[in-house]
Amino acid sequence: MTKNRNKIAILIFILIICASVPWYFSSLVLYPKVNCNTEHHVFCQTPKEINLEFESVSIQTPDGLSLESWYIPSAGSKKGIIFVHGHGGSKNEGLRFAESLHKAGFNLLAISLRRNSGSFASMGYYEPNDVIAGIDYLINEKKLESVGLFGFSMGAATSIITMEKDSRVKAGLFSSGYASAMDVLSESAKRDFGIPYYPLIPVVREVLNLRGSMDIASVLPEKSITNISPRPISIFHCDKDDYVDVSHANRLFAAAKEPKELWIPSCNRHERIWNTNQKESEKRSVEFFRKNL
């Protein structure tokens, strides 16, 4: 009798683990804490922190969200760039590049994605709809004629998928993005929590799909990037990125067709390319958009 009770207790414990771990991990994906810290993002106030005038604008999505964003105008210019922030990030993320790109003559839209507007993050499943709404805004409301995307981490993955879907995007710069949402999630689960792929990651995937009404395995920037050509793309990635391994950049570049560029500078923290290579990263981003927008 005691042995049976022990077996039942062990079984119950295993079932609890199998249920609680996927729920916890899926919650980290769907509802990341949104924050801005100066060590990483550098600029955590408004664009006035870098002496740029801006408008607070509300971008409306087809599913009824209001994305509270910043529009930084450039007098006389019909060219615009949308900054697309990462998972758990905010519209501040692109401000590191804002001063140099604005000086080069580009209007800028620092868009706030759906997690920051009362919804949840989906690793690039729903976020392309947010960016397309931003493109609509620049073209229809601001009468811009040429639009590019500058995405960071999840924002890079989102920008790749958006660019495949929307031919109005003329050029895309993708910084620290991933080739597959499920690959980067399983890699981070193993690295940060010691969770092996089997048996829990497939359960996490299904819990994510149920809670988010999505198919997370279909978020495959590696597949989408193949269909962007002949529009130009550029990829930035730290050689020792501590969250999204540089192999993702190599996979994306290999899948992309010409015209394409790849820059892998020396840096060891995720999405801190500007922080450690400011002059070169600004030079390359300005040159890319000047050439292609």
In short:
The protein has 293 residues and is α/β, with parallel strands linked by helices. The protein has ten helices and eight strands.
Description:
With 293 residues, the protein is α/β, with parallel strands linked by helices. The protein contains 10 helices and 8 strands. It has an 8-stranded mixed sheet with strand order 1-2-4-3-5-6-7-8, with helices on both faces. The chain is globular and about 55 Å long. About 3% of the residues have low confidence.
Helix-strand blueprint:
Layout: H1 2-30, E1 55-60, E2 66-72, E3 79-84, H2 95-103, E4 107-111, H3 127-141, E5 146-152, H4 154-165, E6 169-175, H5 181-193, H6 200-212, H7 221-224, E7 233-236, H8 246-255, E8 260-263, H9 273-276, H10 278-292
Parallel strand pairs: 3-4, 3-5, 5-6, 6-7, 7-8
Antiparallel strand pairs: 1-2, 2-4
Helix pairs in contact: 1-6, 3-4
- Let me know the largest β-sheet: 8 strands, mixed
The count of DSSP E runs of length 2 or more, i.e. the number of strands, is 8
Share in β-strands? 15-25%
User: What is the approximate shape?
Assistant: globular
What order do the strands of the largest sheet run in, or round the barrel if closed?
A: 1-2-4-3-5-6-7-8
Compute the CA-based radius of gyration: 20 Å
Q: Assign the structural class, choosing from mainly alpha, mainly beta, alpha/beta, alpha+beta, or little secondary structure.
A: alpha/beta
Overall mean confidence score, pLDDT: 93
Helical stretch tally:
10
Helicity level, as a percent range? 40-55%
Low-confidence stretches: 9-16
